[in-house]
Amino acid sequence: MNDAGAPAIKQAAWAAVGRARPHESATLHVLGQATYTDDIAEVAGTLHAALGLSAKPHAHIVSLDLAPVRAARGVVSVLTVKDIPGTNDCGPIIHDDPILADGKVEYVGQPVFIVVADSHDNARRAARLAKIEYEELPAILTPQEAHAAKSYVVPPMRLARGDAETAFANAPRKVAGKLYVGGQEQFYLEGQIAYAIPGEDNGMLVQCSTQHPSEMQHVVAHALGLHSHHVVVECRRMGGGFGGKESQSALWASAAAIAAHKLKRPVKLRADRDDDMLVTGKRHCFYYEYEVGYDDAGRILAAKVDMVSRAGFSADLSGPVATRAVCHYDNAYYLSDVDIRAACGKTNTQSNTAFRGFGGPQGAIAMEYVLDEIARNLGMDALDVRKLNFYGKTERNVTPYGQAVVDNVIHELVAELETSSEYRARRAAIAAFNAGSPVLKKGLALTPVKFGIAFNVTHLNQAGALVHVYVDGSIMVNHGGTEMGQGINTKVMQVVAHELGVDMDHVRATATNTSKVANTSATAASTGADLNGKAAQDAARQIRERLAAFAALQYGGEAGDVRFAADTIFVNGMEVPFPALVQKAYLARVQLWSDGFYATPGLSWDAKTMNGRPFSYFAYGAAVSEVVVDTLTGEWKLLRADALYDAGQSLNPAIDIGQVEGAFIQGMGWLTTEELWWNPGGKLMTHAPSTYKIPGVSDCPQDFRVRLFENRNVEDSIHRSKAVGEPPLLLPFSVFFAIRDAISSVGGHRVNPPLNAPATSEEILDAIAFVEAAAAQA
């Protein structure tokens, strides 16, 4: 076998990337052997904590009687804000989020004290026994109320291009209206949990279910009044995160660590689902007021929108969420003259936080709603109006924030889906069905996605990794990303295996640990595989180059001609097994481990002007959904969904398709069934599975067709792949607008249904009643 031909053939056959591979923990998941934080064997003497929560949305604490709590069964200690040795803060950006309330509470469910007992059940029962006297203060509960009161957690922001006012005034046609889109509970399978184990010399190990171990390290260190080097945070895997464990795992990590530090004993804090939902923030709900001018063909000439989110009582990540909403208002459409305003309303509710999409879905849906209205006003198919407004290739290709769209494939992608889904034929068939069906009405919609990939905050776009090659040829990789079921470890293992030319079975990924890779960014913004894959590739490349140089020295030839494939080193016409070369290299004192680093190039962002190049590239997609609605009950069913997603040159098609499927159903839940409701006293009433309705198996369409669009990233991403975590969540816009299309058919498509999200049965019935009344008056 010669060195010139064989390696290329074998490398293609043994390529570790670009192939469908099972999730690295799939077998462990199925067998119930995967270790989550609550499964970690407890150290002797472990205690259990629970949080005592506020019962008022906004009030001064007049008196706090904890004697009944201390006297309860199994209670070891009760801690208040006075017991925090360091800083009473767990806010990720603005330090306005106390770990424990200090004299004032700002939402129902805010932690006031920590109970530590001999069991989880005893701690939780004792936490209910406190006697708290409040002096109530006025409470703001909705984003509309916050906007009217100019109550914000950060200053309002504005992005303007051109002269939207003049363009709107001169537009031959105009549409204006209001829209409300609700929030969403992350509803991860594994709730918030932290296990803090004190060590020598003020050391603290925190095993934590978190998307951001480095931030947990900082928060815990500050809370304990220690340095970061005193604190190690580790996370092997999460049972889901969806953004809810990016910043808000900090409260649980710091509370457990404070108790462990105080008592010098291990402390576990595991939230029950009710407490978890009461305490933690959700996806931001948004309220919009919009005005758009357009021409007779349906092309947008001017767009103005004023959107306000329910931020909750503290800033958390509301500012960046609003920024991304502003930057995704355009979605896939060129907007020449815009005036986009966004505010983060301060409300006496849970502090809302990151959620898959991070404001992008909330920004984009407002534009889709407008285009849907324009189409109906003109008597056109909404798809034709959407296509008319798409970004161009060489002109009409600069976003309102100044970034050129250089990788635009939306035209080709939508055309492919339009054909494969038989959109036009189904549109005609649905019209015929509706004409003969007075009660059941069908609807159809095709919606596109353009989603920017990178953290809006430039410095967060960095990652590190460690790769160790052991003497037996096995490989260990550690990186700064966190595994929450999305397959980041699998993809990083594939990258390392590919770089070293070995089978993936020889590679193992270990728990994310702040003592191994420091100063990491959150696994968020769909950047996990992009950043950490590149960092791991960098580390593996350095080892490969060292081994190649050693192989050339041992066997002759040039180092640059050495090839790694099929667990073999091809050097100077010879084949050397990978483990054999590694053993020889070790004896020759060749370094067999390396660190790697990656920082995404070419990014810039000016927060004051809201201009720059905040994204490395764009991911695209589109979906077609067909629904049937019962106009007497408001019930509906998704009959068929076709999704086409641009994952670039996919690292792992199986995992990517799974991510698209999951994102689609999760996004559908946000827009249809998952309703958050607070009572007039400010208490979240949908705080359990019994009252909060995520989609079930029966809600998935029987006909669900998901494919990946053949493409290659124009940017130098990891193996020219594209991110797949967040963008597909926008695909089920098609479900929402298919429902709206079905409702619209009740009035012969002459009336725009005022449909808010989530489109619950009640919301659907209200919209149907409006359409029927308006059609009767026409």
What would you note in describing this structure?
- The structure is a single chain.
- The chain has 778 residues and is an alpha+beta fold.
- The chain is 30% helix and 24% strand.
- The strands form 7 sheets. The protein has an 8-stranded mixed sheet, with helices on both faces. A 5-stranded mixed sheet has the order 7-15-14-13-8, sandwiched between helices. The chain has a 4-stranded mixed sheet with strand order 16-27-28-29, sandwiched between helices.
- Helix 19 (733-745) packs parallel to helix 20.
- The longest helix has 28 residues, at 528-555.
- It is globular.
- Radius of gyration from the CA trace? 27 Å
Largest sheet: 8 strands, mixed
Give start-end ranges of low-pLDDT stretches: 1-11
Output mean pLDDT: 97
Number of helices: 20
Helix content: 25-40%
Structural class by secondary-structure content: alpha+beta
Please give the order of strands in the largest beta sheet.
Answer: 3-5-1-12-9-10-11-20
Q: Characterize the overall form.
A: globular
How big a fraction of the residues is strand? Answer: 15-25%
Q: What gap, in angstroms, lies between the N and C termini?
A: 81 Å
User: What is the number of E strands?
Assistant: 29
Topology (elements, then pairings):
Blueprint: H1 6-14, H2 26-31, E1 47-53, E2 59-65, H3 67-70, E3 75-79, E4 104-105, E5 111-117, H4 120-127, E6 131-136, H5 143-148, E7 152-161, H6 164-170, E8 173-181, E9 193-198, E10 204-208, H7 213-224, E11 231-235, H8 249-263, E12 267-270, H9 273-279, E13 286-294, E14 300-312, H10 318-327, E15 338-346, H11 360-378, H12 382-389, H13 410-420, H14 423-435, E16 440-453, E17 462-469, E18 475-479, H15 488-500, E19 507-509, E20 512-513, H16 528-555, E21 563-565, E22 568-571, E23 574-577, H17 578-587, E24 593-599, E25 604-606, E26 611-613, E27 617-630, E28 636-645, H18 653-672, E29 703-708, H19 733-745, H20 761-777
Parallel strand pairs: 1-12, 10-11, 14-15, 18-19, 28-29
Antiparallel strand pairs: 1-5, 2-4, 2-6, 3-5, 7-15, 8-13, 9-10, 9-12, 11-20, 13-14, 16-27, 17-18, 17-24, 21-22, 22-23, 25-26, 27-28
Helix pairs in contact: 7-8, 10-11, 11-12, 15-16, 19-20
